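[step 3/7] fold_predict: job queued, chain A
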Amino acid sequence: MNKNLHSSSRSQSVRRSVFIAMKRRLFLISLAMTVALAGVAMPAEAAVEMFSADYGSAGSPVGLGTTEDLSLGKFDTSLGTLDSITIDLFSENTVQSEIINFTTGNLPYTSTSTTFADTVTALNGLTTSVTASAGPFSGTASARSVTVDGSSTPTSANSSAAVAPGDFPLYEGVGPQTFDVSVLVGEPFIEGSGACLAFAGLGSSYGSVEVIYSYASVPEPGTGWAGFAASVFSGIWGFARLRRSRA
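[step 4/7] structure written:
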């Protein structure tokens, strides 16, 4: 009887020693994984940041020959590494032709048109622009009057320009910083044909300018891998406990 108890006690002691050794080995493996992976960054993730500013409005558009200055946000380099930068112009333009008749009789006109450009100028001379035009028109200008031809409804026009990689530093900063762009609603180019008539142009614009930063966002080193190592250790430790309870 005593011999059996002694044998059972020895068997339990051996199992306990094996379990403790296994526990120590698993702990060392987990510790080594955590230390090794702590300095390894997780893969970069694609991300986008955008800033926008408006010029004019539907109720108060910018007239011809006028420049508007705007401020846009720079890219915060703490977010990651830039892949690309684009400057986008979104405009709503109204353009019409004026036919001026100073005589006492009605006069015909033909081939009458008006054209102007909206131009955004960013850093280092980068530009993007759209063209708004109306015509060609033809008709009859009443005596001693100004005839306006063309629609007063704004039409949309958009454009985009990519920043050269060599200019990326001009658009970068640490924390909230801005850079300036200008929007020029240009002078009109006017054409028209008709004896004893004068021609002029009407136009206005409003819209927005955007800068879009596409970048690679890099997580903090080791955040994901260290957690992964801890999860692996927890799983192994749970398995070891299950084996122990069954024993």
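[step 5/7] annotate
The mean pLDDT is 84.
Residues 111 and 136 are 5 Å apart (CA to CA).
exit 0
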